[in-house]
Design goal:
This protein has 4 helices and 3 strands; from the N terminus they run ααβββαα. It is mainly alpha-helical and 105 residues long. It folds into 2 domains: 46 residues, no CATH class; 40 residues, no CATH class. A 3-stranded antiparallel sheet has the order 1-2-3, with no helix packed on it. The radius of gyration is 16 Å and the shape is globular.
């Protein structure tokens, strides 16, 4: 299926999707800081590049978005109309990576 947007419009749309400092992430960070926790952000030397690292407690926090992790029944998760198979595989891999982390918690 062909893309419904021009290359320039698609590029602009994708540039507006932020990988860091998203609204949910800022809410979590503000809460942690208010409770006295001090943290590092987006540590490149840890697997998965966690959003928040609490070195004192040897803990990491991933703030998962609804789209990237395919939350069931969430109004924010919609499968894209283009490259559907690729996106479903990508989201399935994301879920697979998160499962061991969730069980450990």
């Amino acid at each position: 299926m062909a893309d419904v947007h021009t290359k320039e419009v698609r590029s602009y749309n994708m540039s507006q999707i932020r990988p860091k400092n998203t609204r949910p992430e800022l809410v979590v960070r503000k809460y942690l800081f208010a409770k006295g926790f001090r943290y590092r952000l987006h540590s490149k030397n840890l697997p998965g590049r966690p959003d928040i690292v609490l070195p004192k407690y040897r803990t990491v926090i991933f703030v998962h978005g609804c789209f990237w992790h395919g939350h069931e029944g969430c109004k924010y998760f919609v499968v894209p109309k283009t490259k559907t198979e690729w996106w479903l595989n990508k989201i399935a891999r994301n879920k697979q990576l998160v499962q061991p982390l969730m069980k450990a918690a």
